[in-house]
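Hey, I'm writing a tutorial for new members on how sequence and structure tokens pair up, and I'd like a real worked example in the thread rather than a made-up one. If someone can provide the structure for the chain below, I'll link this post from the tutorial.
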Amino acid sequence: MKLVIAEKPSVAQSLAAVIGATARKDGYLEGGGWRVSWCVGHLVELAPADAYDPRYSKWNYADLPIVPGKWLYQVLPDTKKQYNVLSALMQDDRVDTVVCATDAGREGELIFRLTYDLCGCTKPIKRLWISSMEESAIRRGFDSLQDGGSYDNLYAAALCRAKADWLIGINGTRLFTCLYKGKTLNVGRVLTPTLTLMAERETAIENFKKEKFYTVELAAQGLRAVSGKFSSKTDAETLRSACLGKTVVVQSVTSQNKTERPPKLYDLTTLQREANRLFDYTAQQTLDYLQSLYEKRLATYPRTDSRYLTEDMADGLPALCAT
């Protein structure tokens, strides 16, 4: 029997319907030689600082930096029940293979692997790698399950990012909060550089000084020509005077037909930017809406920087566009 672990209950139900696991159990579905369960997002995360030493519950400059020798993990209290369900399923002797069916990306790989490792599971891993929730795409994915070891580097990259977030967030936030002895000053791997860019841009806007410039424009029988910019009005006037009363000679004309290609599909960043401009949505709102559409089979996998569709998705496009 194979155990399939998805990221969310709604995705698990879609996968189970395709492979015939329709019998509902407590925390999973079963049928046709399959069991399908889910992680409910992040079940396991890196433990907080005070899990390494109780003294870290207080923020002291002298304790910094906090660098774990051996990383500890914890199960979130509100998802402990589902974690126990997955642990029991993985330890069940009837399960011989575990299929990672979390989202096809770095974060999805991390969610599955942390749960798998903390449960102490050593059974073979297969990877379901799909970017569409169409039934045909799901069926093709299960027909060509990949070896889980092929995604070890993806997991390593995700774990590296998570640990970097922990180290920078824990130590940076405590450092600056202790130094300035005020309210909490949040520091983060992504947060701080982003705020720096915003602050630099705001400073540039505040310090911007308008500078006058001059151009010379010629207009003759429908023809319009504009010179470059002059910082000196005298130089622009000199050029204007030199042109007065003179004959304009057109030495060459080039005509060219161009075909404008349709815009590329949205990637997540571009869509978030457009949704903010048009609807004032936050980046998180856009991601949440897009994730919901993905789970309803109305969009492809959202967490990607690709602006193209793969060839194996071509057959499902007409039905998707007609929805």
